[in-house]
């Protein structure tokens, strides 16, 4: 595609995503479906440019008024992903001069908000938790995430799959914490690979793998994944149970549960039972009350730990939406807890970095449910022989009460988990 045409297309897509009426990944996928002639490189340019604009929106909002032409074009020029010569050949002399002026601005001379590119309401809760590490976090949130795979250890060994991928030209390294993970050095299309088709690999962030590991589900147990979605954690848990026992995958979204079906078929798991529920107090929950060994609540949340992948979330979420989410989270956790039998384990997890959705939900649950004793994440991770377990935890007197993953420290998305045992 001619550089001018590609820049025009990029500006068009930037305009669509900046409306924030749908998630950015939905808008980008729809655009690609409607423009089938776009090649892989053009798609990469379009998607990466849009994501850069979303990541650095405050900075680009600040720089763009000094340029000319439609705003979305100026934003696309500032975030353009691709060789500089290619971009320059699409620009007027005036635009080239403006871009050179923007490039010459030193980072140190920018206001804080133009460096962190976060909405103001998010800044203080992060600074309160991280102090001077706040800047390392914002730098890593503004980078794309690596591509992590989970090896289905039901049928394949991680080392064998690593060799197989290498032979196919895809070097990877074992993830440092999850025993099931491989981190790829590139971002290939995996769907046509044999390892993918036979269910040996699934795309899953290492942090998400660790949440499944924390449940520590055993052979033959009765387990519930209460918010199973498209089954990322369900599949990991089902494999950890060695395809035995019974693993119920609940969700209120049958659409998401449907998306689990092809993944389940590839995985060769037959111990998973997906079931749509109307809400967290569904009849099905009542029938299973007191019968379950382990329950994981991977709660609906703001997703603010996944800004590397979903940078639009910081502009789509608000303090009010987070507050509404916390009410839902508390209700789901309370209802899911009824499923457990004495001695059973409850895991509450989110991909948020906000204490309101994490430690505060956990503290309120502990205070209201004397029949549940908190279980320290550090103890569980140490028993599971996870390397550097202490560095993955925070909270409480020992600093080990909760799993707390951060992109800048652990190269995972931002995840939280709290655990309890039913007395
Ligand atoms: C964080 S996502 C789950 C992701 C999934 N566990 C995975 O690993 O891919 C949260 C899920 O909770 C579901 N959900 C929302 N409200 C619910 C409720 N009241 N009961 C059960 N699931 C609910 C959403 O449909 C969504 O799929």
UniProtKB/TrEMBL annotation:
CDD domains per UniProt: AdoMet_MTases
UniProt-annotated binding residues for S-adenosyl-L-methionine: 251, 298
Example of a GO MF term: RNA methyltransferase activity
Gene3D superfamilies per UniProt: Sun protein, domain 3, Vaccinia Virus protein VP39
Annotated family: Belongs to the class I-like SAM-binding methyltransferase superfamily. RsmB/NOP family.
Protein name as annotated: Methyltransferase
GO BP: RNA methylation
Active site residues according to the UniProt entry: 351 (nucleophile)
Keyword entries, A-Z: Methyltransferase, RNA-binding, S-adenosyl-L-methionine, Transferase
Domain spans labelled SAM-dependent MTase RsmB/NOP-type: 137-423
SUPFAM superfamilies: S-adenosyl-L-methionine-dependent methyltransferases (SSF53335)
């Amino acid at each position: 595609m001619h550089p001018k045409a590609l820049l025009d297309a990029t500006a068009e897509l930037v305009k669509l995503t900046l409306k924030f009426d749908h998630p950015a990944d939905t808008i980008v996928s729809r655009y690609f479906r409607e423009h089938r002639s776009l090649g892989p490189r053009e798609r990469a340019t379009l998607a990466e440019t849009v994501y850069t604009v979303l990541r650095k929106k405050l900075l680009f909002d600040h720089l763009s008024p000094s340029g000319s032409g439609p705003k979305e074009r100026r934003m696309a020029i500032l975030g353009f992903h691709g060789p500089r010569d290619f971009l320059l050949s699409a620009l007027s002399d005036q635009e080239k001069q403006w871009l050179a002026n923007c490039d010459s601005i030193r980072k140190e001379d920018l206001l804080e908000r133009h460096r962190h590119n976060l909405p103001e309401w998010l800044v203080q809760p992060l600074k309160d938790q991280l102090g001077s590490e706040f800047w390392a976090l914002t730098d890593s949130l503004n980078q794309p995430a690596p591509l992590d795979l989970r090896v289905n250890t039901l049928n394949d060994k991680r080392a064998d799959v690593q060799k197989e991928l290498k032979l196919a030209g895809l070097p990877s390294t074992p993830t440092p914490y999850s025993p099931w993970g491989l981190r790829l050095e590139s971002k290939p299309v995996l769907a046509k690979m044999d390892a993918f088709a036979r269910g040996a690999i699934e795309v899953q962030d290492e942090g998400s793998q660790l949440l499944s590991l924390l449940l520590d589900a055993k052979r033959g147990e009765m387990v519930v994944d209460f918010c199973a979605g498209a089954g990322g954690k369900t599949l990991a848990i089902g494999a950890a149970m060695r395809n035995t026992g019974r693993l119920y995958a609940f969700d209120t979204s049958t659409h998401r549960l449907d998306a689990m079906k092809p993944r389940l078929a590839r995985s060769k798991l037959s111990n998973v039972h997906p079931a749509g529920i109307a809400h967290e107090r569904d009849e099905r929950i009542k029938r299973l009350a007191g019968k379950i060994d382990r329950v994981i609540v991977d709660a609906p949340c703001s997703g603010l730990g996944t800004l590397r992948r979903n940078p639009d979330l910081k502009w789509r979420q608000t303090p009010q939406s987070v507050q509404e989410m916390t009410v839902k989270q508390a209700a789901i956790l309370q209802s899911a807890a009824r499923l457990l039998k004495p001695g059973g384990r409850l895991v509450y997890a989110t991909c948020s970095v906000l204490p309101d959705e994490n430690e505060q939900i956990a503290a309120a649950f502990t205070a209201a449910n004397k029949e549940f004793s908190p279980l320290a994440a550090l103890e569980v991770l140490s028993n599971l022989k996870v390397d550097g377990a202490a560095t993955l935890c925070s909270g409480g007197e020992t600093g080990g009460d909760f799993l707390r993953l951060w992109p800048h420290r652990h190269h995972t998305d931002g995840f939280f988990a709290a655990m309890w045992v039913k007395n």
